Amino acid sequence: MTHMNTQESVRAQYAREGNLTTRRSVWQPTADGRDPATEAARTIAEARPRRVLEVGCGTGAFAERLVAENPDAEIVATDQSERFVELTAARGVEARVADLQDLPFPDDSFDVVAAMWMLYHVPDLDRGLAEVRRVLRPGGLFVAVTNGDEHTAGLRREAGGEAMVTQFSSENGEQSLRRHFDQVTREEFATRAVFPDHAAAEAYLASMQDGFDWRLPHFEGSKEYAGHVTLFAVS
Ligand SMILES: C[S@@+](CC[C@H](N)C(=O)[O-])C[C@H]1O[C@@H](n2cnc3c(N)ncnc32)[C@H](O)[C@@H]1O
C-alpha cells in the first residue's frame, strides 16, 4: 500500500476538485493527435450500449461526454467522493456515491463499465475488478485507462523524486485484468504534459499531496514532459 490507495489519503486527495483539476489541465494528445479519453469514448459508443456505468467518475467530464455521445443509453456515474458526485450530478448525469469494492448494483446490470485513471487507487484491486465482472453482463465491455511507470517520470526525477509505480499501470494492469476477464486488448498513447511556466509544474507536483519535498530546478518559459497512457478494452 502507498499513499495512492489508502482510503484516508484518497479521500483527502479528492475531497475537493482542486488537485484533479490542476493535473487534468496540462495534458495534451499524442503528437499525431490521439487522445485516450476520445478513444475510450469511441470504443464505448461502438459497443452500442443500453446501460453504462462509470466508476471513479471524478468531476464528471467523461460521464457528461458519454451522455452526449450515447443518446439512447442510460449512463450512471459513481465515485467515492461526495463532492465529485455532486459536481457530476450538476452536469445532468445520474450520479451516486459508491466504492468500487462494493458496488450497489445487481449482477449483470450494465453493458459497459468504464474506469478512467482510478484503478491504481482501489485498496483491494481484485475485489474491485470482481465487482466490475459481477455488474457487467456476460459479453459486456470493460474499458480501463491508466498511466505507465514512465508517465511524468522526467518531471518527477528532475524534481528529486522517482517514477511512480502503481498497482494498476500500463506495465502490470493486463496481468490483473486477466485474473478476471478472458479477452484483453490494449492501445498505447505517448501523451504530453505542457506547463506554461515553472510555477505550473510545481503546482502539478504539489497536487499529489504525497508528503514528498519536491525541488524542481527553476526553468524559464514553458516546458513539456512525456506521459504514457494505456487504454485496455476487456471482455
Ligand atoms: C485520478 S481521479 C480520476 C477521475 C476521473 N475518472 C478522471 O479521469 O478525471 C481518481 C478518481 O477515482 C475515485 N476513487 C478512488 N478510489 C475509489 C474507489 N475505491 N471507489 C470509487 N471511486 C474511487 C477518486 O475519488 C477520484 O475521483
From TrEMBL:
Query: Which InterPro entries does the entry mention?
Result: Methyltransf_11, SAM-dependent_MTases_sf
Q: Which organism is it from?
A: Nocardioides ginsengisegetis
GO biological process, any: methylation
PANTHER family per the UniProt record, alphabetical:
2-METHOXY-6-POLYPRENYL-1,4-BENZOQUINOL METHYLASE, MITOCHONDRIAL (PTHR43591:SF24), METHYLTRANSFERASE (PTHR43591)
Limits of the Methyltransferase type domain: 53-143
- What would you give as a GO molecular function for this chain, any one? S-adenosylmethionine-dependent methyltransferase activity
Keywords for the protein's UniProt record, in alphabetical order = Methyltransferase, Transferase, Ubiquinone
Q: What is this protein called?
A: Ubiquinone/menaquinone biosynthesis C-methylase UbiE
Q: Which CDD domains match?
A: AdoMet_MTases
